[in-house]
Amino acid sequence: MIVRIMGEGQIEIDEADIDALNALDQELEQAIESGDEETFRAKLNALLDKVRQVGRPLPPDSLEPSELILPPSDASIEEVREMLGDTGLIPG
């Protein structure tokens, strides 16, 4: 699966890592719902760090279609709330 972190580039992640990413995504959603800025920031950074950790960056000149687009680490709660779908940032 190809994931784009806005402002950073694309990362390829294995399907086997989706469950771990979904758990972090759910924690992020809970922080957004509670409006807790500090927890939101920590959970967003944890999710992005995990994507970077388990993924393999694609070359900058790669033009693969992204299956998921994640916000940058400096995104606001409102910006991320607008990106959330019915299944969070990461479906599954």
Q: What features would you describe in this structure?
A:
The protein is 46% helix and 14% strand. The protein has 92 residues and is α+β, with helices and mostly antiparallel strands. The protein has one domain (2-83). It has a 4-stranded mixed beta sheet, with helices on one face. A hairpin with a 3-residue loop joins strand 1 and strand 2 (9-12). Helix 1 (18-34) runs antiparallel to helix 2. The two termini are 12 Å apart. The mean pLDDT is 91. This is PspA-associated domain-containing protein. Pfam families: PspAA.
* Sequence of secondary-structure elements: EEHHEEH
Shape: globular
Number of strands: 4
Q: Please summarize the sheet with the most strands.
A: 4 strands, mixed
What key attributes describe this structure?
alpha+beta, 14% strand, 92 residues
Summarize the structure.
With 92 residues, the protein is of the alpha+beta class. The chain has helices at 18-34, 37-54, 77-83, and strands spanning 2-5, 9-12, 56-57, 68-70.
